[in-house]
Amino acid sequence: MKLITKFLLIYLLVSLIVLSIAGVLSYYIIKGEIDKELQWEFLDRIDRVTYLMEEGKTFDANEVNSDENLIIKPLNEYRKNDIRIADTLIWDHRLEQEERNVKVSAYRNIGDTTYYISTYGNMIESDDITEAVVTILLWILGMQVIGALGIGYFVSGPLFKPFRNTLKRIQNFKLNEKEYLKAEPTNVSEFNDLNIFVEEMTKKAVSDYKNLKEFAENASHELQTPLAIAKGKLELLAETDLSAEQFKYVENLERTVKKLSRLSESLALLTKIENHEFENSQEVNLSGMIKESIDSFREFTDLHELHIDTDIADGVVINIHPVLADILWTNLYQNAIRHNIENGSIRIVLTDDTLSISNTGKDLDFDPELLFERFKKGDQNSNSIGLGLSIINRICDQAGFSISYTTEKGWHSIQITLKSVKTG
Q1: pTM
Q2: Which listed site, 53, 175, 196, 292, has its alpha carbon 20 to 30 Å from 154?
Q3: Which CATH number fits domain 280-422: 3.40.50.970, 3.30.465.10, 1.20.1250.20, 3.30.565.10?
Q4: Crossing angle for the helix pair 322-338 and 286-296, nearest 10 degrees?
Q5: What is the pLDDT of residues 326-366, one digit of tens each?
Q6: Are 293 and 330 in contact (CB under 8 A)?
């Protein structure tokens, strides 16, 4: 829900509550004023009747009874002059129901006789007052709704334009472009504060990114040189006259150096992937790439006596950076070979929507999804550096693919849901 929509809903809800309270108060205030005017009118009527009677006018019983709003009765006892005002229910013949009326009664001593004079009436009915108040409030509410919608959809556009521009710039911000977002001045102080904060934040992010990138590149480069030297020295040392125990030590060191070299290269690659340095996507023929790779690794798989079973659809094309596509498949295939068993099998299935590669291997005693984490290995004693599946997972994330890892009855299966461009 947009901010302006939420604001309008809150505004209308508050308005509805306020108008409801105002309606109740208006009803009682209006009715009180009307009742007060009625009381003064009825008191004036009683005073006029009293004056006429004091002047000698007599009222015939039939004349009085014909006016249902005026009652004059002589009393057999003496009563002090007094006025009483009260509400009463009077049957309304037109509406055929009892209606609330204001009743004013008075005792008047005229000559030697005390008279009871009473009059009542209701100039405006309660239903009419209620209807008038509700009508007025509905008109007010309707105008408020129209005004709020007008403000929301016409005034809010220019008002929130700087905010939307800033939000769009943040959404399009990319660290690998190494350009921070400069603050754009606006005529709203809060938006200015936001833009200044965004500028400072992105400037620091770009600076940290540059430093981290330089460190990763320098560390990878500087490590490769001494590792290459160490590897060369060990190869020369292996060619000298060594005892069996010394040769064993040299072999172990060579394996360690190779592992360190792979680790350095893999960490550098993972850093580049996470920094989105491979963003120029292209259409890559995955079918052709997999078939060529299988042929390239044929000697290696034959050496391990692995049986390769394939079901590869032709012309499956995906949109991805070519380097990432090659790294993705190479790591998948090498992982299936490296972690297989002697005389094992590899099964590869490629369709328009999925890529699945399965291999025989040792059972796991933990959730296979954990292997996508860095340095997580099924066999801690193996020569694997534990980054292959982590690299595969990051490539899938960047390409918009989903990946899963399952094991069942000695088979390890990795399935990737692709976004195929076309088939041919």
Answers
A1: 0.48
A2: 196
A3: 3.30.565.10
A4: 40
A5: 888 888 888 888 888 888 999 999 988 889 999 998 877 77
A6: yes
